[in-house]
Structure formats: C-alpha cells, structure tokens
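Q: May I have one protein plus its fold?
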Amino acid sequence: MEKKLKTMLQYAMEAPAPERKQEFLCRIRESMDDRQAGQGSRGGYGRFVAGQVFYIGKWGWCGSFGAFLGALLLGGFSDKNLLWTFSAAAPFLAVVFLAEGLRSEMYGMAELEMTARFSLKSLVLARMGIMGAVHMLLLCLGMAVCYGQGEAPLLHAGVYLTVPYLLTNGAGLYLARKMRGRECMYAILAAAAGVAVLPFGVKLLYQEERFIWWMAALPVFAVLAVKEWKKSLEGWEEVTWNLS
C-alpha cells in the first residue's frame, strides 16, 4: 500500500516537460552578449578596471600602507636595520594582496560572483592588478629608502624585498588551494610570519657572499607564484548554462 502511494505521489508531482527550452536559453545568451557588448562600447575594459578601485576593501589599503609605514618607523626609531624591517614587512604586503584576491572564496561568494556580468577571473585580475601596482610602488619606495640610507645597493635592496613577497605569494596560494574559509587566512598569516622572521633570525643570509643565493631564488619564487596564480584562476571558471 505504501509503495503504491509513493508511486501515485511521484506520478502526481512529476514536472511537465519543458517547452521551447533551447529557444529560451539562446535568447538568454544573446541578451547577455548584447549587454556585455554595450558595456564595452560605453566605457571599455579600462573603465571597468578603474571602477574596481572602489571595491577594494579599506582594510586592504590600510594594511598595505600600514605595513610600509610600520617598517619605516621600526627601522627609523630603533636600532634595527631598515633593510631588515622592509624585508620583514614584504610578506605582510603579500598577505594583503592574497586576502583581497581570495575574499570571494573566504566569504563564500565565489559562485555568486561567477554569475555576474563580468567573470570572477576578470574581477580578481582587475583588483589584483591595482593592488599589485600599489605594492610594487611601495616596494620601490622601500628600495629607494634603503639605498638612500646606504644600507644596500639598489639591486640588492630590490632582491631582498621582492623575494619574501614572491615566496609568501606562492606559499599562500598553495595553501588557499588546499584549505577553505578563514582557516586558510590563518595558515597564510602563519606562513608570512615565518618568512618575516628570517631577516631577524638568520642575519647571515644578508651577507654579501650569500647574495647569489637570493639571485637564484628570485626567478624560482617568481615562477612558483605565477604557476600558483594560474592554477587558482583556472579553478574560478565561469558558470555556463547547461545546454544539454
């Protein structure tokens, strides 16, 4: 009796076959293409990128400039070497960079943003491009300060600041692919802290005869960071309609 009742209910609740499904999906796609073309003609991609400046969180800006000013103050008003303090601050710039790029993932908004007019890849690349340009400017300023204070040649200063930044980027993105949520950011912060203590804990790394190690590490960590970003972007595919 119960089995018969279930069969009757299943039959009664069966959804009707969709009518003109393909026509409806084609119209939706044509409408989306028209809207994207209209958006491009009105402002272009440059306007879209410029508009993303206002969507970068205030903590991203505060963290970026706070790390730079903190390193400057710590090195200027203590007996710490400015080169060490800027090198120690570079990993935390990378944390800010990663936090902004992974914000959608952390707050569970990635799937929703994938359905927007602009793809999640475009949003992330635009915001990361802006944040990365700001960070490169801050790192260049740090290089200039260290060089101006006579603490290192310009090339040395640039390598000492860039290597920790790239290392934290690569390690952080690897952790982001293996973990989810806020636990991911805690792990990235721990990795950045580990990289940041190197200038103070292993001062021998900054001796002139060991600079060749840094030069060898620079392209390795750069390739690592690029590969990890590529893998992350490949995982943020656009949501497409199922036309089958």
